[in-house]
Amino acid sequence: ELAQTIKLRQQGGLVAALPIVKGGHGRELMDEIRQVLEQMATVVEERFGNSMANATMMIRARTITAAVVSLLDILFLWWAYQRLSGEMERSEKATAEALHRKAELEDMVTELQHISYAITHDMRAPLRAMSTFAEFLIEDVKNAGQEAKDYCRRIIAAAARMDKLIQDALYYTKAVSQEIPTSPVDLSKLIPELIETYPNLQKEKADVVVEGELACVLGNEALLTQCFSNLLGNAVKFVAPGVRPNVRIWSEEREGMARIWIQDNGIGIPVSAQGRLFKMFERLTHNPEGSGIGLALVRKLVQRMGGKVGVESKAGQGSRFWVELRVADSGH
What we know:
Largest sheet: 5 strands, mixed
Helix content: 55-70%
Order of helices and strands: HHHEHEEHEEHEE
Structural class: alpha+beta
Low-confidence stretches: none
Distance between the termini: 110 Å
Shape: rod-shaped
Number of strands: 7
Radius of gyration: 51 Å
């Protein structure tokens, strides 16, 4: 409408354009535009109002949710604190009870050790006296019959066996209760020296052969001497009558462990009896020299040094005992 008015004004002057201007059509158009704009503004305001209401609701919902979550967090933390406090209190009580129990057990073990040493001393003294008096009796009663002398010899043998039993029991008590320091021990040196030292392992009585270099293990030299002297002593002791003992010793290494084998040509051990072999006071033969503690002591000492002990045997086919210990590191 405005463009048409301007065109008429340019072509015919003001007079030509006045009818359109006075006609009021442009005002009608503007009024219509204002009405449309008012409607648009109303719609926008409604939408804005709705958006504000929704936003307010969302803010309230989020605020309520945050408050509820915070409350739940506080409740959970309170519950966890109560639970943790209870657990700590119970743990402290249990620790105190355990420490008290440990102290009692330590006192008991100490007392038992004192009793053990006292009993050992008091029991061995009369045994030695019995043996000595029996020997004197044999010498003094020269005209006594053979039967009386035999009784005296039996007294001496029984006293010696009881003395050995008491000593082995004491060794076992020490193995159970005392701390065992360990260090590298060269078995290639220890076992040959042991063989040269013990009379029952000499060449006149047995063939004891060390095959190859033996391992250097982590252990206690004194206790290893006791273990291997016991095993070698059994190897040459339990043979059939008239058979010369033949013992082979060698070692194998695998995954940081050394297994030392002691193979003999003795009477062997029935498979059914091997489960009792390393238990206290278990004697599988009627040999009067055995105390029934030796192999139990060997097992306990080896276990205290972090190792294991076992046997492979059949009745009448000899035995292969083995001791497994950690190989000593070169840095030790």
